[in-house]
Write a structure and sequence with these properties.
CATH class: Alpha Beta
Oligomer: single chain
Strand order of the largest sheet: 6-5-4-3-7-11
Largest sheet: 6 strands, antiparallel
């Protein structure tokens, strides 16, 4: 147990050193290695910042009444949250989740798929809220339910294996929900088959409704 803790700490420290020295971190990918292109990541952060804000979609049951004020932090079920913040030593290139309730998100952390607080506007230095284009608010809600049903599944450390549904990394979880339910592919291809969190902002199939 002590050796495992030392090994885990060493891995986290190594990733931090690689990031701070601008060296692209390498992650296990089955029998291969997957290298994160930090230059591409930086370009995607800059691109996401330039995506214009739009009003959130209107519920099919709202009779034209707006769900929330323009640019306010989202609490609607099915809205996707993305941050470029380095997150808890898992992947030093951002994190993604989907809103389940006004106070809860579904996300995949190192321990697997779980729920967490919907407080990213307070706990992240930068946060984006995006909604998928071409879906209704009911469909977005169903996507959040799909993610919620994956709770307890392990974290997917094989970032190129996006076809698996037995384990998930953060952005793969959100991507898989809309792909499996509606055939909507939120992957831009910037990282090959891997799905990076910032792709969920930069894809033409989502609209940015919040930015802090």
């Amino acid at each position: 147990m002590k050796r495992q803790r030392i090994s885990l700490l060493s891995c986290v420290l190594l990733v931090m050193i690689l990031v701070l020295t601008n060296v692209s971190p390498v992650f296990a990918n089955g029998s291969d290695n997957y290298t994160i292109d930090m230059k591409q990541v930086q370009e995607d952060w800059e691109k996401a910042a330039k995506v214009p804000l739009v009003q959130d979609k209107i519920s099919e049951n709202s009779k034209g009444i707006e769900l929330s004020a323009y640019g306010t932090y989202p609490t609607r079920k099915g809205v996707i949250l993305v941050t470029p913040d380095k997150f808890k030593g898992i992947i030093p290139t951002g994190h993604a989740a989907i809103i389940y309730t006004s106070t809860t998100v579904v996300e995949s952390l190192s321990g697997g798929v779980t729920t967490g607080p919907n407080d990213w506007n307070k706990t992240r230095s930068k946060c984006y809220g995006v909604t998928v284009s071409g879906t209704t608010t009911t469909q977005d809600s169903n996507a959040a339910d799909w993610c919620y049903r994956q709770r307890g599944k392990s974290y997917n450390w094989n970032y190129l294996n996006v076809s698996t549904r037995s384990s998930f990394y953060c952005s793969q979880l959100v991507w898989a929900a809309f792909l499996d339910l509606y055939g909507i592919d939120l992957d831009t291809g910037s990282y090959g088959v891997a799905v990076h969190p910032m792709e969920l902002v930069n894809t033409s199939r989502t609209s940015k409704i919040y930015e802090n």
